[in-house]
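hey so u asked for the seq, here:
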Amino acid sequence: MRGLDVDAVVVGGGAAGLSLARHVTAEPGPAPTVAVVEPPSGPVSSPPRTWCFWEHGDGELEEFVHRSWGRLLVRGTDGRVVTGDGWDGVRYKMIRSADFLPAVTAELAADRRVHLVTATVTGVHDGPDGARVTGVDAAGRAVALRGRWVFDSRPPRRLPPARTTLFQHFRGWFVRTATDRFDPGVAELMDFRTPQPPGGLSFVYVLPLGPRDALVEYTEFGPAPLDDAGYREALEHYTRRVRPLGPHTVTGTEQGVIPMTDGHFPRRLGDSVLALGAAGGATRPATGYTFAAIQRQAAAVAAALRAGRTPVPPRPHARRHLAMDAAWLRALAAGRIDGAAFFTRLFARNPPRRVLDFLDGTSGPVGDVALGLRCPVGPMARSLAELPFLPRRTAPLPHPRPLRKASR
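ran it, structure tokens below
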């Protein structure tokens, strides 16, 4: 049995796990030792994906940004653009896992404080003075690691009980057109010219990668993913009738399912075992965005580790934001609000920067109140008032489909 004793074991070498290790070792000199355990390439390893977020100016991950856009558009169901300018230097950015993960892995491999372990984890055993991680490597040999702290960044295997659970499910086509069809400087965040499902919403997300290349992604909030025929029909309807692209080819596909729930994800799983990333509640319930919250969470945990404090991941989102999200999810699922009209109104009646700050979870109470007063107050207030009386139920996770997954 191969053994290793370190200060922190990170289970999972995806965005959350590698970001934590990178933050821990960001400063030269003494630092906690870290082991990152990632399974060998195969059915249990994470497929390629893209992560998107917005940021003011250049950020600390700028070297990994594949594309960025200085203007964002939102189109209502009638095709009217409700926002365009006034973004105050905010850029919408895309990072590809195919760029980020190998580069950060190589960076960590050169750091003597980091141990990269390739193994499939079979168990995490908690204890008051540390935890033990067991697994099997590609050759079938047993692996054991011990850490004062273990951070489990693997996707949650089950969802917590919740009053409302919807799923943001999407399939995107990477398209190449025969003629120029896209403005590379403009990202279309939401185009609501799609059939709207009851108790949910749908839109198409268009990220130009060049004048003739773009990611065109059909997104729906609802109780369950579509089948292959449903996604194909939705994307063909958009690219042929709503926004005709002319002759084009599909060069790639990505797909994902993100739980949107007001359930509480525990961040502490034991005396020495902690949840990180989506498993630790980093996903914003009302939007599905996760990557920016992962970076904030990883930075805070790394600072606590270096300072010798108990490194419980901080709550990724403010309580008032979670309460507003819970009310919105309830109102949408109950059919009290029109989801497309809600977002169209949100962007039409508020400064774009205020909306983005709220969706990113960085807005303050004053901005939140101003934004809330421009929402459908009656349906939202009713939904908020009934939340304490609603039972919490556990919803099953959908079965994964055999396509590339993506995460926002």
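The two ends are 38 Å apart (CA to CA). Confidence is low (pLDDT under 50) at residues 401-408.
lmk if thats what u needed
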